[in-house]
Structure formats: C-alpha cells, structure tokens
Write a structure and sequence with these properties.
Layout (H helix, E strand, L loop, with lengths): L1 H10 L6 H8 L3 E5 L4 E3 L8 E6 L2 E6 L5 E7 L4 E2 L2 H6 L6 E4 L3 E6 L1 H10 L1 H27 L2 H11 L9 H8 L3 H15 L1
Antiparallel strand pairs: 1-8, 2-7, 3-6, 3-8, 4-5, 4-7
Helix pairs in contact: 4-5, 6-8, 7-8
Length: 195
C-alpha cells in the first residue's frame, strides 16, 4: 500500500517495471511521526528528503529574535526537506515539524544520486519535481513582493485549498507575511465578499 502510493506518484511522470520499482523502492524508508514532533532541526548534520504519505508538515526558519517564518507546508503527495542542507551537504538552517500525525517515506542524498545515475527516468522524475518546487518558490516570492494582504490570502486559498481548514490561522499568517490580527481582518473580508 505504502509503495503503491509512491509508485502512483512516480508514475505521474515516468513508469517502471515491477522489478525496477521494487529496486527503486528499496532505497526509500518508512517513518511515522506524531503531531509536533521534529523531523529536522536547525544544526542537524544529515538531512533526508521526505515524501509525505499522510499528514501535514511545516518547514520554518527562526530568526535572531526567535520569530518563526514559515518556508513551506507539505501535505500528502508532496516532498519536503531543507534543500540547501540536502543538496549541498550542509548543516540544516531550518526546522521541519509535524502539524498533524504523519507517515513519510524518506531517501538519503546518496541514494537519490545513486538512483538518478542508474535510471535516467528517476533523474528526470526528480528534476521535474525540483523544477515544480522552483516555480512555486518564485510564485510565492512574487506574491510577497506584489500582492496586498488580501490578495496573498486569496492566493493561498486558491493554491492550497486542502490546507486552509487543516492548519492554524497563525501559521497561515506567518506564511503569507501578515500579523494574526491582519489575517483575521483579511479572512473576514474574504468571507463577507463570498456571501
């Protein structure tokens, strides 16, 4: 069942024989996490790349004033890691923790590189996933630079409809770069406009 979820996810881009997929899936490992448990902590040396089977996670940076800044949310069928730490073998600078109970599959950097070298289709799969991440990151930066608070909230609702009811409002506020009070006003305005 777990491997079928991963196989279906990969098959959206590339396909493999049963034997090939069995070998590929042997490089992924299962992990079950509880709500509020840390997956990655700042300062951690070895970081894996995680595929979300169930649950919701957040990655965030803590600034010098101990304020959290949400970098990414991840829900089922999404990937999450500290990308700089993972790809450049550096110490992690962000935290990743579970907003809900989670089930994950993870792969090490060495195993990802190994599969990419052995299977051109896996290299293609990981490249497509990385490109989608770059696009989402650019869209978020441009939204932060160009959109009003209400527009950013609307953009979040359209981009992540499954998350809006599943995560606390203060996390959404951090993600879109507004105070909790501002988010409360903005969300009321959006609700009033949709009535």
């Amino acid at each position: 069942m777990i491997n079928m979820t991963l196989r279906d996810h990969i098959a959206e881009i590339v396909s493999f024989s049963d034997q090939e997929f069995e070998y590929i899936s042997s490089h992924f490992h299962y992990k079950k996490m509880k709500k509020n448990q840390f997956l990655v902590q700042a300062g951690q040396q070895k970081v894996n790349k995680y595929f979300v089977l169930s649950g919701i996670l957040k990655s965030y940076y803590v600034d010098k004033n101990d304020k959290e800044h949400i970098v990414q949310f991840a829900q089922p069928d999404w990937w999450i890691t500290d990308y700089n730490a993972f790809f450049n073998n550096k110490e992690s600078t962000i935290y990743i923790d579970c907003i809900t109970d989670c089930e994950l599959l993870y792969i090490s950097h060495n195993d990802l590189e190994k599969l990419s070298a052995e299977f051109h289709k896996m290299e293609h799969f990981f490249r497509i996933k990385s490109n989608a991440g770059y696009v989402a990151s650019q869209e978020r930066i441009l939204a932060m630079l160009n959109l009003s608070s209400m527009e950013r909230y609307n953009h979040f609702i359209k981009s992540y409809p499954n998350l809006i009811q599943s995560i606390p409002k203060y996390l959404i506020a951090s993600y879109i770069g507004v105070s909790r009070e501002m988010l409360s006003r903005v969300s009321k305005n959006v609700t009033n406009h949709t009535k």
